[in-house]
Write a structure and sequence with these properties.
Elements lengths: L3 H18 L3 E4 L16 H6 L7 E5 L3 E5 L4 H7 L6 E4 L8 H7 L4 E5 L5 H12 L4 E5 L3 H4 L11 E3 L2 H4 L3 H10 L6 E4 L2 H8 L1 E3 L11 E4 L4 E4 L7 H11 L1 E4 L4 H6 L5 E4 L6 H10 L2 E4 L6 H7 L3 H30 L6 H13 L4 E4 L4 E4 L23 E6 L1 E3 L2 E2 L2 E6 L5 H18 L2 E3 L8 H10 L9 E3 L8 E6 L13 E4 L2 E4 L3 E4 L2 E6 L7 E6 L17 H18 L5 H10 L4
Parallel strand pairs: 1-5, 3-4, 5-6, 8-13, 11-12, 13-14
Antiparallel strand pairs: 1-2, 2-3, 7-9, 8-10, 10-11, 15-18, 16-17, 17-20, 18-19, 21-28, 22-23, 24-27, 25-26, 27-28
Length: about 600
């Protein structure tokens, strides 16, 4: 964590650069040019300028003031990390929090700049319109951090590889043909979003921590495709396979802008939500016949969201591998705490990683493990550090949100444990979360249902006790890709995307009470029509791990909820027990006994 004085020095350097550009304010988002959730260190500009290292946030700097906007997951973390820096915290989605345009108007900033590579066409246009309402101008600038960040990390150069059809279930050529069939004859489709490129080309890499992606751009032309990437990331055999079997030629990453400038009078399909304003302007200046995608997330994301049978089988395999690791981890954890030992949050996360790493095909974690005990569990995206690390005990909840990347699938699971005697309040809160999780996972719903129509199922019991949570209830999951993906979601906010058979998403209601405890219970689910009346769908649980019952008020569960829980635990035991030792089987049997 950077010192407050260091951050003040960095802000002063940015302000000096702003004066040379004649701008009154500069906006620093959390993006890279590909709009990734996690970014490579080269693009960690917002964290560098502010000291706040959460995954989401936007910093705005003026000559005299600075502020950071972030969401409820990071309120407590941001408050601590911004202390003494001169950067004010603006809490998103709260009634008294101004929008960025409102704040800029209040501080009388007339000219605002952004790095054009870090704002999509849509985001830039939207911000320009909002600022214009206050008479504020917005301009796309060069990257100031190339100048002021003297020891800036280089662009990532990790190796890339091709994912075999035995894991992907479809060849690279077939995917490109499906994409070409959905666009006008002669059109060129540009793709800048990294997981879309990875899915299309069955390409995986290590350029971004937790996400198996490689920094690149892709142009799908009528008869070939061009991949703009550092060619040294591939072995000669993979380069040859891409060209001969998939019709993909490799070009240098830094030649993408030059290529766009050559597309005069060519029909070009691009997603304004997924291509930055600087490259978009190059296309317009070149006279390309731009055809913006009109679907919210684009064709490739929609195709990627519906998993094929091979991918679904891979998810099921990943859940078994992950489930075995989790059983062994929970046995270790329970044994330690019952014997009076107190492993710390960091020790717990490290031990969980070790159990996962022993699994066949393990490629790393799908995100940084959240291991939060007691009040730390109330921090939605808590990240333990050597300074914050505390031992787990038996008086409060231990919340563990974690996941793994495997060659054949991605996992994401949250379990909340209590190893002592829960209080009445703790039982009430945990049971309310569990009942909502069960009701959502057990839901049957008509074809044509959106996630927002189901979200209340996860929240209703929390609402009954006057509680709520501000994060989403469910997100899409990539197949050996990003742990968070669209286009579907389950949340209070409206999302027009329909839930379709083959989609995989999380179900994760929670409750976070500052200075008390945090609770979240999360399974991954598959949308399926199997076992449903005509015209209906349901969620099939994919995650295989017992749900802790220590803090459950059994009497509060209705009959259907008990039946679901018993059936789920029976499936957990059936699927995992063949891979376990007799001692592990006995332990799991006690954790999955009917209630």
């Amino acid at each position: 964590m950077e010192t407050a004085n260091t951050i003040r020095e960095r802000l002063a350097a940015l302000r000096a650069w702003m004066r040379t550009q004649g701008i009154d304010a500069f906006i620093v988002p959390s993006n890279d040019p590909h709009f990734s959730e996690y970014v490579a260190p080269h693009w960690g500009c917002r964290a560098w300028i502010s000291g706040f290292d959460g995954s989401a946030g936007t910093v705005v700097v003026t000559a005299e003031q600075a502020a950071l906007w972030t969401d409820s997951r990071y309120f407590l973390q941001a408050e601590a990390q911004l202390q003494g820096t001169g950067i004010d915290l603006q809490r998103l989605a709260l009634p008294d929090t101004p929008t960025i345009p409102e704040w800029l108007n209040a501080v009388q900033a007339a000219r605002v700049g952004v790095d054009g590579l870090l704002f999509s066409k849509s985001a830039f246009d939207r911000l320009q319109q909002e600022l214009g309402g206050f008479g504020i101008t917005l301009s796309s600038t060069e990257d100031p951090f190339d100048t002021i960040w003297t020891d800036r990390p280089a662009l990532p150069k990790q190796p890339a590889r091709l994912l075999a059809p035995e894991y992907s279930g479809e060849t690279t050529l077939s995917k490109q043909e499906r994409i070409r069939a959905a666009q006008p004859d002669g059109a060129i489709r540009l793709i800048a979003v990294l997981d879309e490129i990875a899915w299309t080309l069955n390409l995986r890499g290590r350029d971004i921590e937790y996400n198996p992606l490689t920094v690149s751009y892709l142009a799908i032309e009528p008869s070939q495709s061009l991949l703009f990437i550092d060619r040294d990331k591939f072995t000669p055999d993979d380069r040859e396979q891409l060209l001969l079997k998939a019709g993909v030629a490799i070009r240098p990453y830094d030649e993408f802008a030059e290529y766009l400038a050559s597309l005069s009078n060519r029909p070009v399909i691009a997603n304004p939500n997924g291509l930055d304003i600087r490259h978009w302007n190059i296309l317009e200046q070149a006279g390309a016949r731009l055809q913006p995608e009109t679907t919210p997330y684009g064709l490739v994301t929609a195709l990627k969201a519906v998993k094929n049978p091979t991918e679904i089988a891979g998810f099921r395999r990943a859940m078994e591998t992950d489930g075995v690791a989790l059983v062994r981890f929970e046995m270790w954890l329970e044994s330690n705490l019952s014997n009076g030992e107190h492993p710390t949050e960091l020790e717990i996360a490290a031990r969980l990683h070790a159990y996962r790493a022993a699994g066949e095909g393990f490629q790393g974690e799908s995100f940084e493990t959240i291991s939060g005990y007691g009040t730390h569990g109330a921090i939605v995206h808590y990240s333990a550090t050597p300074e914050s690390d505390i031992p787990a005990g038996q008086e409060s909840f231990l919340l563990i949100d974690s996941g793994g990347q495997y060659l054949y699938g991605t996992t994401d699971i949250t379990r909340t444990y209590h190893f002592g005697r829960p209080t009445t309040e703790q039982r009430r809160d945990y049971t309310a979360v569990l009942r909502g999780m069960i009701d959502l996972c057990a839901a049957r719903f008509p074809v044509g249902t959106r996630g927002a129509q189901l979200d209340v199922l996860a929240r209703r019991y929390l609402w009954e006790i006057g509680q709520n949570y501000l994060h989403g209830t469910g997100h899409g999951i990539g197949h050996f890709l990003c742990v968070h993906e669209g286009p579907q979601s389950i949340r209070m906010n409206e999302n027009p995307v329909l839930l379709e058979p083959g989609m995989v998403q999380s179900c994760e209601p929670g409750l976070y009470l500052a200075s008390k405890h945090g609770i979240r219970i999360e399974n991954l689910t598959l949308v399926t029509a199997e076992g449903c009346p005509d015209g209906f769908l349901r969620f099939e649980p994919l995650t295989l791990c017992p749900i802790s019952l220590t803090a459950v008020d059994i009497d509060a569960l209705d009959r259907a909820q008990r039946e679901w829980l018993n059936a789920y635990h029976a499936e957990v035991y059936r699927r995992l027990s063949p891979y376990l030792t007799p001692d592990e089987q006995r332990w799991l049997q006690t954790k999955t006994c009917p209630i």
